[in-house]
Design brief:
The complex is a heterodimer of chains A (about 130) and B (about 375). Chain A is built from no helices and 10 strands. Chain A is mainly β. In chain A, strands 2, 3, 5, 6, 7 and 9 form a 6-stranded antiparallel beta sheet that branches. Chain A has a 4-stranded antiparallel beta sheet with strand order 1-10-4-8, with no helix packed on it. The radius of gyration of chain A is 15 Å and the shape is globular. Chain B has a 9-stranded antiparallel beta sheet, with no helix packed on it. In chain B, strands 11, 15, 16, 19, 24, 25, 26 and 29 form an 8-stranded antiparallel beta sheet that branches. Classes of the chains: A mainly beta (about 130), B mainly beta (about 375).
């Protein structure tokens, strides 16, 4: 098992005039998983304005092609505090591919801001299913 | 690509008027020896089906040897065409994974693509296939013994004429037991709904339209585990609304309680209130896993993998009976109002580890947090 910081503390703020555009993590921060198959995401949200406006998504892709990223878990509304999401290759319909990133997906066209950090515990190759 | 990611097929267009399969050239087949499974990322930028209402079946096939004879579908084929239930060209990749059912297998070393038109006519398909290989094989419910009934809305659906050709007339059992569900009457056919639960399809059962399905008679054992992945659309539901039932008074019932606000398991009980194995809250719009497990003398009800109630029941005497989905076994009424995505029956009580495996499988598919 290895712990990796996907995103150090950051605040993302969008005004109502942002027209509901999604904000994806910059490509230099994308995680290159290599041989990792199982992931546990730890999302720590310390501040959140307009909690019903934006969802967090964890996306993966086999290549660094922007349009190729797909959510591994259903995008979710955030709350302040720590949230844990597990993506195990054995069970996941979309298991982790090579690259992983976060993406903020607005639900409505309104202002929001959120301060968060994401860590991920990574597990290599085959493990017991149970 | 490198590591465990592979380019199986770069962008290409296949065009034909022939009603015959097209298979990838053997030079390009992937040899994934030492891997346990594969996830296929299929980009389709353009599709022209051979005729209106017809489709192109796109399958990823696998074989333990490069002999053409042994290739079979690794995952449920994608069906490209115009209108539901067919997939469309999209800027988002179609991601498919193996699923061990009647027609699919886990990875068996070699992997290739195959296109099969459903009829004669000019067709073409522009696509790319990338593959991410896994060491861990995908879990599927049939890996556990005793699975006698497995319906999932993304495989084995037959579209009928109900609800403007979105009604479901057939739902094929993936357990290998042949316990297929059917509804011949168009007005009573549930509606096939793409992207219903976490992006996966489900069948919409509308109580007001009396939509339901049933199987031929089959026998569920004196011990059993019944599991349903559902999403209510109304709360409360009808009194004793059914998810699935053979006969509450002699075998099994999984559904709602008398006021339709909680889930309930009934085993071989003919006297109101039919035991007290009821609990959990029916929440409209919430994907939910409802599980009833019986091992004499205890019947337990779980919601999203957590125990919510249990009671003692007299063990049923296994008898062959039809299974009703979303309807009272004996009379019209008591319909489920919501989506049903997946149903499972095991002919035994699952162990704790097995129980966890099935719930993690369903939780991952329908974005439900389970223990």
């Amino acid at each position: 098992m290895e712990g990796r910081c996907v995103q150090d503390w950051v605040t993302i703020r969008a005004g109502a005039s942002s027209n509901g555009f999604a904000v994806a993590q910059g490509s230099e921060g994308w995680l290159d998983l290599g041989d990792v198959e199982d992931l546990v995401f730890i999302l720590d949200v310390r501040e959140l304005q307009a909690p019903t406006v934006v969802k967090m998504a964890y996306e993966t892709s086999p290549t660094r092609q922007e349009t190729s990223f797909v959510s591994m878990v259903s995008p979710f509304l955030m709350t302040t505090g720590v949230r844990v999401d597990r993506v195990f290759a054995t069970y996941a319909p979309i298991p982790p591919a090579r690259y992983v990133r976060w993406r903020l997906v607005p639900v409505t066209n309104a202002a929001y801001d959120v301060t968060f950090r994401i860590w991920v515990a990574t597990y290599s190759w085959v493990r017991s299913a149970s | 690509m490198s590591g465990r990611t592979f380019l199986c097929q770069d962008w290409t267009t296949i065009r034909s008027s022939l009603n015959q399969p097209f298979v990838q050239d053997p030079v390009m087949w992937l040899d994934l020896d030492s891997f346990g499974d594969a996830t296929c990322w299929i980009d389709v930028s353009e599709v022209t089906p051979p005729a209106a209402g017809a489709s192109l079946q796109f399958a990823m096939e696998t074989s333990p040897s490069p002999d053409d004879t042994y290739f079979s579908a690794m995952a449920p084929p994608l069906s490209f065409g115009a209108g539901a239930p067919f997939a469309q060209a999209s800027t988002t990749p179609n991601v498919i994974r193996s699923a061990q059912s009647l027609t699919t297998n886990n990875l068996m070393r070699y992997l290739r693509w195959k296109i099969t038109p459903s009829t004669t006519g000019p067709w073409d398909l522009t696509f790319r296939v990338r593959v991410v290989a896994n060491r861990s094989p995908a879990f599927v419910p049939t890996l556990l013994s005793g699975c006698i009934f497995w319906l999932r809305a993304d495989i084995g659906i037959t579209i009928g004429t109900g609800s403007a050709n979105t009604g479901v007339s057939g739902w094929k059992d993936q357990s290998g037991s042949g316990n297929d569900a059917a509804q011949a009457t168009p007005a009573n056919q549930p509606v096939y709904t793409p992207n219903a639960m976490n992006g996966l399809p489900a069948l919409r059962m509308t109580a007001a339209n009396a939509q339901w399905m049933s199987t031929a008679a089959f026998t569920v054992g004196a011990a059993a585990t019944l599991i349903a992945a559902v999403q209510p659309v109304a709360s409360p539901q009808a009194s004793y609304a059914r998810l699935m039932e053979q006969d509450y008074s002699s075998t099994y019932f999984l559904g709602c309680d008398s006021v339709g606000s909680s889930y309930k398991l009934i085993v071989n009980t003919n006297t109101p209130p039919y035991g007290v194995a009821g609990g959990g809250t029916i929440t409209s719009g919430a994907p939910t896993i409802v599980t009833g497990k019986y091992a004499s003398p205890t019947g337990s009800l779980y919601v999203n993998g957590a125990l919510v109630a249990s009671d003692t029941f007299t063990a049923p005497t296994p008898t062959s009976q039809p299974l009703l989905i979303s309807k009272d076994h004996a009379a019209a009424g008591e319909y489920w109002d919501g989506y049903i995505a997946e149903l499972l029956i095991y002919n035994r009580a699952l162990t704790k580890n097995e129980f966890t495996q099935v719930h993690r499988y369903l939780g991952a598919r329908y974005s439900i947090v389970v223990p």
